[in-house]
Design brief:
InterPro entries: TAP42/TAP46-like_sf, TAP46-like. It comes from Exophiala spinifera. This is TAP42-like protein. One of its GO terms (molecular function) is protein phosphatase 2A binding. One of its GO terms (cellular component) is cytosol. This protein has 356 residues and is mainly alpha-helical. It has a domain of 157 residues: Serine Threonine Protein Phosphatase 5, Tetratricopeptide repeat, CATH 1.25.40. The protein has twelve helices and no strands. The chain is elongated.
Length: 356
Amino acid sequence: MATANEASEPSLKETYNEAKLRQTQLDSLDPRSSSYKDTLQSIIDNFERCRQLIRQLALFSPNEEVEDIATQDLQYLTVDYNLAEMKIKTYSEDRLSSLQASLALLESFLTQLDNYGLLDSSNHKLYERFLEQRHGFRIVSSSNPEEKRKIKITRFQEEKALKQKLEYLRGESQKINIDDDTIRNLYLAEIALSVNRTFSSLDMITQELDILSHMRQVPTQASPSIDQREPTRSDGYSERLDGPMTMAGLGKKGGPLLSSSGKPLQPFTLTDKRTQLQQGVFRSGHNLPTMSIDEYLEEERRRGGIIEGGGNANAAQPEPDEDNMDEVDAATMKARQWDEFVEANPKGAGNRLNRG
């Protein structure tokens, strides 16, 4: 005899319908709002309650065929899938646990469907590949771009066809005189669409788990100390701008200012702590230049970094002596030859821009 508490608890059908109703409401809520988080948690609680009731009622058995399942019970085959999808949407501090739980639920969903023979040949191959590559599963295993594109298009077309079939069956199920076969086909279409989306979720989960595992490994690696980041020479020289032997390293341990004989090893200024803090706060946000452009050019000229001269091509040419007819004739011929050359070779004639 059932107790009053047991009688007051909602049935599997009521709990499942409540979870599905809240799922439709979730899409209209802002993911950042508290109402979204509360609704999401309520859906998760309802689906977890559905799982408990399914086990208590022993609705499914590995010894059965899909024909042995009652039509109204077919819809409960998607409980694990729906619960996994809701857990994927949770972004708590323990994201890793949520993804691992979703991965286990999706595997349980596919395993149960495979036992009932509800996976077609292509999805069955994907399921077997997932079992072999749980931690590195990808829908597209090939590196060939053309094959990747072909597989993605095929799966997109399959999902589109399943959505159209499901929409049609949902419309038929709203009619007054509806037969059992239509309802059964409706639930089977929902299962097929869930299978198609499951492999996409598995692909996404394994990628995110791989990223999270690498992120968790980074803090465990010992960070090198300041002295280990940059090798120094025996004389204390370092490429670091804030090294102990530089002005930026003043005040840091390991930056000697005076030798053992009292000789200053580097320039320094005696200031109090307050002055140092003020300089650190009000200093420029970038490194200021230490010399002007003219000083830099002069230094480069001194070091030989600027090439000057290059002959007397740019020097002022002497004017021919007007009284010397030979020089005048030679200058005239030279100018005439230059004009003829310019006329025969217009500017830009040699630059054809690869046009032949």
